[in-house]
Structure prediction request, 131 residues.
Amino acid sequence: MSDVAVAPELKELGDKIAGLTLKQAKELSDYIKEAYGIEPATGGGGGGGGAVAAAPAAVVEQTEFDVVLANVGDKKLDVVKVVKNLTGASLMDAKKLVESPKPTIKEKVSKEDAAKVKAELEAVGATVELK
Prediction:
């Protein structure tokens, strides 16, 4: 936390805005836009809008990931076997998947599951990206 001097009522307002759910932030944004004609900043420099208008644009942490095979490495057969086990595909389908350009091995998995899949593939020499 920073040690910025702020009036107590502004600190309280800021704390309330920071504690909003995404749905509440969107509703606040819509209300401010409709009632006062103020829209959230879309990034970049300059321009007013203030803290209230910028609050709904808070960063949302990514919760679902796609595991993409960026490079097979030197042990293609081992990678095919791991992909087969991870996807439940036949050996032939796993081979086709591995041979396609930047294949997505798993879609919309949790951060923990994505990390496990990535670790398994990297253990056999593959390069993996999480998107």
Observations:
- The longest helix spans residues 22-36.
- The chain has two domains: 8-57, 65-130.
